[in-house]
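Give me the 3D structure for Lysosomal membrane ascorbate-dependent ferrireductase CYB561A3.
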Amino acid sequence: RCHHRTMDMLDVPFLPFCAFLGMLGLLCVAMVGTWCQHWRGGFSLDGSSRTFNWHPVLMVTGLVVLYGAAALVYRIPNTWSGPKLPWKVLHGSLALGAFILTVLGLAAVFSFHNSQGTPNMYSLHSWMGLGTVLLFSCQWAAGFGAFLLPWAPAWLRALYKPIHVFFGSTILMLSVASCVSGINEKLFFSLKNGTTAYKLLPAEAVFANTLGLLILIFGVLVVGALARPSWKRPDSNSPDSRQ
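Predicted structure for Lysosomal membrane ascorbate-dependent ferrireductase CYB561A3 (243 residues):
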């Protein structure tokens, strides 16, 4: 009886939970933009450090927040009945938008490195980030071929669906790890040589560390929502689904 009472207390409706996630995601985007504008000099396309500042903003917006929104589309109760095609298109479009922003974010950091003569792809953050983007591109292409093209056979969709779901959550957590490690790497590089050392926790360090924690919380909550049984779309063969 105590167990059931506890579960009832934790039974948060999906839509308020989703609204909270949306506000948290917008807060993450606003904070990364504020960080780059206030402490890192703003934005530009001239190949300077201000060009680099597009990288964290686009990555957090696309690879974490927009990708998380795409992942949650099929948890909306309205998707549980009626035609699936409009929701498939929305899911694929959000994922495609996230991918486009991610590619632009990669272009910004490569442009900055090349203009400054800085080597590319030497840190763990860069390896993990590029690997996540490559996995994301494969995920989107495979999902488009299996679920949106009309000639994909039903057995192929049934076979690939659990794989698609698994890698969806995996890519999101890799995205969160890449963003958090990137924030930490940027602080180590920036807070030295004339600025307050990172170990002394200046205001920028506190702000960026808080941003990293919020990104981590966002990712954990999205994965938790994806794993919650009561928020999953009913199986097509179940009585509830047929009803």
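The two ends are 31 Å apart (CA to CA). Let me know if you want a second pass.
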